[in-house]
Amino acid sequence: MNTEPRRLSTAEERRETVLRTAIGAFAARGYFGTTTGEVAKAAGISQAYVYRLFPNKEALFTAVVEHCFTRVRAALEQGAAEVASSEAQVVLDSMGDAYARLISDNDLLLVQLHAQAAAVSEPAIREAVRAGYARTVEYVRGASGGSEEQVQKFFAAGMLCHLIVSLDASSIDAPWTRTLATGIVHY
Question: pTM value?
Answer without folding.
Answer: 0.89
